[in-house]
Amino acid sequence: MIEFNPHSHALQDDPYPVYRELRDQSPVLRVDELGFWAISRYADVKEALLQPSLFSSKRSLDGSDPSERTPMIVIVDPPHHDELRSLVNRAFTPRRIADLERRIREITSSLIDDFVETGSCDLWRDLSAPLPTIVIAELLGVPARDQEMFKEKSTAIATQVGPAMKLEPGAAMDGTHPVIELAIYLARIFEEKREHPKDDLMSALLAAEIDGRRLSQEELVGFAVLLLIAGNETTTNLISNAVVLLDRHRDQRARLIEDPSRIDRAVEEFLRFESPVQGIERIATDDVAIGGERLRRGDKVFLMLGAANRDERVIENPDRFDVERDPNPHLGFGLGAHFCLGASLARLETRIACEEILSRLPDYRVSGPTRRLYSGAFRGLLSLPVEFG
Questions:
Q1: Scanning 41, 74, 209, 266, which has the fewest C-beta atoms within 10 Å of its C-beta?
Q2: What is the DSSP string of 87-127?
Q3: Contact 161, 376 (CB under 8 A)
Q4: Is the pLDDT of residue 334 over 70?
Q5: DSSP string, 301-341
Q6: Model confidence over 335-381: pLDDT tens digits?
């Protein structure tokens, strides 16, 4: 029997050999000690993602999970999910995202200006962490003075997610959990926006209606909490992982420097090869067969995006990093109804970050030990020392 614990630091340091074992020997594995099924093959993960009625995004079938008290769109199923998503989609239209390009490049360039003359920096602290934080904070319309706090809370939340991790009821009562702390803070900001609306996403959500109904306070806060967390962690991890990969594969870095138009395709390979989100949770709403196993109603499921993206049954030479890989049918942003809402923004931020890094720091090198973000669901770093010039 394969031992699999997504919260193990040893596993997170190098999960891919275990992922291969799972795909080959136990593609749908019951992890009894943590109470969930781990699904690792591409075809099975894809099947579950495309069946939200059988594999629900809720955290419980009876509403008993404390995390559901802040109803985020990622734990809401269709059709209510689709209604909520249609509202926030207005902030992520292709035109709106394209309009952000100039501002994202300004932020990126300014962050690099702050350290480019020093010859070294911690690229996580100085670029890959603050860039997405600033972008999502400005999009939402939250004060610049609180951006560092947002990053601190979202990173804390990232370390506490993954299968079998729960928000304890007491944390909801005393406000000590970072999700609750963010929710309390954002509720106050929404009150300010009600009195003084501006041209930002929080004000737009306050004015939005579904069939004549305004969003509830819980729905508003859930939206904002999710966007702050997802807008921070996924893109921060994606940029950090990309920088490390291009340091390890300098011949491919040279190709991107020679022809920056290849960076768009490279971003897809970053997403596949070192998926910033390694897995997402679901719950079976009925008895269902998948991957040769029989799941029961109420069974928890962990859909392993990071393992699926290395599945040789679908991906040719999956352990080879190739910035020009085509086709690249990765599942890094999920699939179906819950396909990542901010995918286009994450891609844009990562492309611009890579363009600016490769243009201004073309000879950078990782100069010391990195520090990993240990999380049951996210794959990224907390420190990335580099030297250049």
A1: 209
A2: HHGGGG-HHHHHHTHHHHHHHHHHHHHTTTTTSEEEHIIII
A3: yes
A4: yes
A5: EEE-HHHHTT-TTTSSSTTS--TT-SS----TT--GGG--T
A6: 998 888 889 999 999 999 999 999 999 999 999 999 999 999 999 99
Which tokens sit at 387? Answer: 């030297």
Distance from C-alpha of 249 to C-alpha of 57, rounded to nearest angstrom? 37
pLDDT tens-place string over residues 142-158: 888 888 888 888 888 88
Domain ranges for the chain, please list them.
Answer: 65-278+329-387
Least confident segment among 87-91, 184-188, 262-266, 339-343 = 87-91
CB 373 within 8 A of CB 381: yes
Rounded to the nearest 10 degrees, how much is the dihedral formed by the CA atoms of 61, 64, 67, 71? 60
Instruction: State the pTM of this model.
Output: 0.92
Domain 65-278+329-387 matching CATH 3.40.190.10: the answer reads no
Task: Answer for the pair 171, 177: CB distance below 8 angstroms, yes or no.
Answer: yes
| The dihedral formed by the CA atoms of 345, 84, 81 and 277, expressed in degrees to the nearest 10 | 20
